[in-house]
Predict the 3D structure of the following.
Amino acid sequence: EAGVAQSPRYKIIEKRQSVAFWCNPISGHATLYWYQQILGQGPKLLIQFQNNGVVDDSQLPKDRFSAERLKGVDSTLKIQPAKLEDSAVYLCASSLAVELAGPYEQYFGPGTRLTVT
Amino acid sequence: GENVEQHPSTLSVQEGDSAVIKCTYSDSASNYFPWYKQELGKGPQLIIDIRSNVGEKKDQRIAVTLNKTAKHFSLHITETQPEDSAVYFCAATGGSTLGRLYFGRGTQLTVWP
Protein backbone atom coordinates (compact mmCIF):
# COMPACT_ATOMS: atom_id res chain seq x y z
CA GLU A 1 0.00 0.00 0.00
CA ALA A 2 1.44 3.36 -1.02
CA GLY A 3 1.97 5.87 1.77
CA VAL A 4 1.26 9.58 1.96
CA ALA A 5 3.14 11.44 -0.76
CA GLN A 6 4.38 15.01 -0.43
CA SER A 7 6.28 17.39 -2.67
CA PRO A 8 8.58 19.14 -2.80
CA ARG A 9 10.80 17.66 -0.08
CA TYR A 10 12.78 20.86 0.39
CA LYS A 11 12.13 24.49 -0.41
CA ILE A 12 14.13 27.64 0.24
CA ILE A 13 12.49 31.03 -0.34
CA GLU A 14 12.99 34.60 0.71
CA LYS A 15 10.61 36.31 3.10
CA ARG A 16 7.55 37.84 1.47
CA GLN A 17 7.65 35.25 -1.33
CA SER A 18 4.95 32.64 -1.77
CA VAL A 19 5.21 28.85 -1.67
CA ALA A 20 2.90 25.88 -2.16
CA PHE A 21 3.07 22.31 -0.90
CA TRP A 22 1.26 19.31 -2.32
CA CYS A 23 -0.04 16.18 -0.61
CA ASN A 24 -1.55 12.96 -1.91
CA PRO A 25 -3.09 10.88 0.91
CA ILE A 26 -3.37 7.12 1.21
CA SER A 27 -6.03 5.79 -1.12
CA GLY A 28 -9.41 5.61 0.58
CA HIS A 29 -8.52 7.96 3.42
CA ALA A 30 -11.23 10.59 3.72
CA THR A 31 -9.51 12.69 6.37
CA LEU A 32 -6.44 14.76 5.59
CA TYR A 33 -4.36 16.85 7.99
CA TRP A 34 -1.67 19.48 7.57
CA TYR A 35 0.74 19.90 10.49
CA GLN A 36 3.55 22.36 11.09
CA GLN A 37 6.61 21.03 12.92
CA ILE A 38 9.08 23.61 14.16
CA LEU A 39 12.55 22.31 14.96
CA GLY A 40 12.65 20.65 18.37
CA GLN A 41 8.86 20.52 18.77
CA GLY A 42 6.03 18.15 18.09
CA PRO A 43 3.74 18.61 15.09
CA LYS A 44 0.99 21.19 15.45
CA LEU A 45 -2.24 20.89 13.49
CA LEU A 46 -2.89 23.65 10.96
CA ILE A 47 -5.98 22.34 9.19
CA GLN A 48 -8.09 19.17 8.96
CA PHE A 49 -10.26 18.14 6.01
CA GLN A 50 -12.94 15.48 5.84
CA ASN A 51 -13.36 14.74 2.12
CA ASN A 52 -13.28 18.23 0.60
CA GLY A 53 -14.75 20.05 3.61
CA VAL A 54 -12.80 21.82 6.36
CA VAL A 55 -13.31 20.27 9.81
CA ASP A 56 -10.88 22.40 11.81
CA ASP A 57 -8.78 25.38 10.72
CA SER A 58 -8.69 27.17 14.06
CA GLN A 59 -4.86 27.16 14.17
CA LEU A 60 -4.32 28.22 10.56
CA PRO A 61 -2.95 31.80 10.21
CA LYS A 62 -5.53 32.74 7.63
CA ASP A 63 -3.97 36.08 6.79
CA ARG A 64 -1.11 34.23 5.05
CA PHE A 65 -1.92 30.52 4.93
CA SER A 66 -4.54 28.85 2.76
CA ALA A 67 -5.35 25.25 1.95
CA GLU A 68 -7.70 23.42 -0.31
CA ARG A 69 -8.66 19.85 -1.06
CA LEU A 70 -10.47 19.81 -4.34
CA LYS A 71 -12.34 16.59 -5.21
CA GLY A 72 -11.59 15.22 -1.75
CA VAL A 73 -8.22 13.64 -2.62
CA ASP A 74 -5.07 15.73 -3.15
CA SER A 75 -4.48 18.86 -1.13
CA THR A 76 -2.34 21.96 -1.41
CA LEU A 77 -1.14 24.27 1.35
CA LYS A 78 -0.03 27.76 0.40
CA ILE A 79 1.84 30.47 2.27
CA GLN A 80 1.73 34.03 0.95
CA PRO A 81 3.65 36.06 1.97
CA ALA A 82 6.12 33.94 3.92
CA LYS A 83 7.75 35.12 7.14
CA LEU A 84 10.99 33.99 8.78
CA GLU A 85 9.01 32.22 11.52
CA ASP A 86 7.35 30.00 8.90
CA SER A 87 10.58 28.01 8.60
CA ALA A 88 9.53 24.52 9.61
CA VAL A 89 8.67 21.07 8.30
CA TYR A 90 5.15 20.85 6.88
CA LEU A 91 3.69 17.41 7.34
CA CYS A 92 0.66 15.93 5.68
CA ALA A 93 -1.19 13.02 7.30
CA SER A 94 -4.27 11.02 6.41
CA SER A 95 -6.67 8.65 8.11
CA LEU A 96 -9.94 6.89 7.53
CA ALA A 97 -12.94 9.12 8.12
CA VAL A 98 -13.31 10.17 11.73
CA GLU A 99 -16.61 9.19 13.31
CA LEU A 100 -18.22 8.90 16.68
CA ALA A 101 -16.81 5.39 17.15
CA GLY A 102 -13.42 6.92 17.69
CA PRO A 103 -10.46 8.36 15.75
CA TYR A 104 -8.44 6.24 13.36
CA GLU A 105 -4.70 5.96 12.97
CA GLN A 106 -3.01 8.88 11.24
CA TYR A 107 -0.24 8.13 8.77
CA PHE A 108 2.28 10.82 7.92
CA GLY A 109 4.13 11.70 4.76
CA PRO A 110 7.86 12.54 4.69
CA GLY A 111 7.21 16.28 5.00
CA THR A 112 8.45 19.39 3.22
CA ARG A 113 11.27 21.27 4.89
CA LEU A 114 10.76 25.00 4.31
CA THR A 115 13.51 27.52 4.94
CA VAL A 116 12.61 31.21 4.76
CA THR A 117 15.60 33.55 4.49
CA GLY B 1 -7.41 22.70 24.12
CA GLU B 2 -5.47 19.60 25.13
CA ASN B 3 -2.01 19.97 26.70
CA VAL B 4 0.41 17.06 26.43
CA GLU B 5 3.60 17.03 28.51
CA GLN B 6 6.38 14.55 27.67
CA HIS B 7 9.42 13.51 29.72
CA PRO B 8 12.33 13.15 29.48
CA SER B 9 13.42 15.30 26.56
CA THR B 10 16.54 13.16 26.07
CA LEU B 11 17.24 9.57 27.07
CA SER B 12 20.43 7.56 26.63
CA VAL B 13 20.52 3.83 27.27
CA GLN B 14 22.88 0.94 26.66
CA GLU B 15 21.90 -1.60 24.04
CA GLY B 16 19.76 -4.29 25.64
CA ASP B 17 18.46 -2.06 28.41
CA SER B 18 14.88 -0.81 28.68
CA ALA B 19 13.66 2.70 27.94
CA VAL B 20 10.59 4.39 29.37
CA ILE B 21 9.02 7.64 28.14
CA LYS B 22 6.16 9.24 30.04
CA CYS B 23 3.40 11.62 29.00
CA THR B 24 0.59 13.40 30.77
CA TYR B 25 -2.51 14.97 29.25
CA SER B 26 -5.03 17.49 30.48
CA ASP B 27 -8.32 16.79 28.67
CA SER B 28 -10.28 13.97 30.27
CA ALA B 29 -12.25 13.63 27.00
CA SER B 30 -9.15 12.37 25.16
CA ASN B 31 -9.75 8.78 24.07
CA TYR B 32 -6.88 7.85 21.75
CA PHE B 33 -3.14 7.91 22.50
CA PRO B 34 -0.68 7.09 19.70
CA TRP B 35 3.10 7.00 19.83
CA TYR B 36 5.24 8.00 16.88
CA LYS B 37 8.89 7.43 16.02
CA GLN B 38 10.59 10.05 13.88
CA GLU B 39 13.97 9.46 12.29
CA LEU B 40 16.05 12.28 10.91
CA GLY B 41 14.61 13.67 7.70
CA LYS B 42 11.51 11.49 7.82
CA GLY B 43 7.90 11.89 8.81
CA PRO B 44 6.57 10.46 12.09
CA GLN B 45 5.89 6.73 11.97
CA LEU B 46 3.09 5.25 14.06
CA ILE B 47 4.57 2.51 16.26
CA ILE B 48 1.80 1.74 18.74
CA ASP B 49 -1.42 3.24 20.04
CA ILE B 50 -3.92 2.69 22.82
CA ARG B 51 -7.53 3.65 23.31
CA SER B 52 -9.15 4.79 26.52
CA ASN B 53 -11.01 1.51 27.10
CA VAL B 54 -7.72 -0.41 27.38
CA GLY B 55 -5.09 -0.19 30.11
CA GLU B 56 -2.13 -1.81 28.38
CA LYS B 57 -1.09 -2.90 24.91
CA LYS B 58 2.00 -4.77 23.78
CA ASP B 59 3.62 -5.37 20.41
CA GLN B 60 6.83 -7.39 20.57
CA ARG B 61 9.42 -5.18 22.34
CA ILE B 62 7.10 -2.18 22.63
CA ALA B 63 4.33 -1.65 25.18
CA VAL B 64 2.12 1.25 26.16
CA THR B 65 0.25 1.71 29.44
CA LEU B 66 -2.57 4.13 30.16
CA ASN B 67 -3.80 5.43 33.51
CA LYS B 68 -6.99 7.41 32.82
CA THR B 69 -7.46 8.43 36.44
CA ALA B 70 -4.03 10.03 36.63
CA LYS B 71 -4.15 11.13 32.97
CA HIS B 72 -0.82 9.69 32.05
CA PHE B 73 0.47 7.12 29.60
CA SER B 74 3.89 5.61 29.01
CA LEU B 75 5.91 3.94 26.28
CA HIS B 76 8.13 1.02 27.26
CA ILE B 77 10.81 -0.35 24.93
CA THR B 78 12.60 -3.50 26.07
CA GLU B 79 15.84 -4.99 24.77
CA THR B 80 16.73 -1.74 23.03
CA GLN B 81 18.76 -1.81 19.82
CA PRO B 82 20.79 0.95 18.12
CA GLU B 83 18.12 1.18 15.42
CA ASP B 84 15.64 2.29 18.11
CA SER B 85 17.55 5.59 18.26
CA ALA B 86 15.16 8.33 17.11
CA VAL B 87 12.81 11.02 18.43
CA TYR B 88 9.65 9.61 19.98
CA PHE B 89 6.42 11.62 20.25
CA CYS B 90 3.35 10.92 22.30
CA ALA B 91 0.01 12.39 21.32
CA ALA B 92 -3.57 12.57 22.54
CA THR B 93 -6.91 13.50 21.07
CA GLY B 94 -8.89 16.24 22.72
CA GLY B 95 -10.74 19.38 21.92
CA SER B 96 -13.89 19.51 19.86
CA THR B 97 -12.60 18.03 16.62
CA LEU B 98 -12.74 14.25 16.31
CA GLY B 99 -9.37 12.82 15.47
CA ARG B 100 -7.29 15.93 16.08
CA LEU B 101 -3.97 15.04 17.76
CA TYR B 102 -2.03 17.12 20.27
CA PHE B 103 1.64 16.16 20.43
CA GLY B 104 4.23 16.26 23.17
CA ARG B 105 7.58 17.93 22.52
CA GLY B 106 9.39 14.68 21.86
CA THR B 107 12.08 12.52 23.45
CA GLN B 108 15.44 11.99 21.75
CA LEU B 109 16.33 8.36 22.46
CA THR B 110 19.93 7.28 21.91
CA VAL B 111 20.85 3.61 22.23
CA TRP B 112 24.60 3.02 22.60
CA PRO B 113 26.02 -0.27 21.28
Summary: The two ends of chain A are 37 Å apart (CA to CA).
